[in-house]
Amino acid sequence: MAESTFKNEPTVEEKKKDEEKFIREVFKCDKCSFQAPYDYYGMKPPFCKSLNLKEDSFIMRDPFTEGRKMVVIGAKCVGCDKNVCKSSVNYII
């Protein structure tokens, strides 16, 4: 099997290392009860090194693509410190 030549595509070894680092936990929005597994909480996900978020966020790898793409699913509300999903970010709890 040929190794990927695209810079954004991880090698087989990188995929294995990434999988070993992360234990999937479940994010639950305190506003709408949306739930989804996440791979990382923070501002600099190691599987997407070119990204620097401005606040800690719940991030999952994009399940619909290969490579190092990701989806931000939510964050902690700065007002009340509750988990809110991306679609609830503009609402007050």
TrEMBL record:
This is Cysteine-rich DPF motif domain-containing protein 1. InterPro entries: CDPF1, CDPF1_dom. The lineage of its organism: Eukaryota, Metazoa, Spiralia, Lophotrochozoa, Annelida. It comes from Dimorphilus gyrociliatus. Coiled coil: none annotated. Belongs to the CDPF1 family. Residues 27-87 form the Cysteine-rich DPF motif domain.
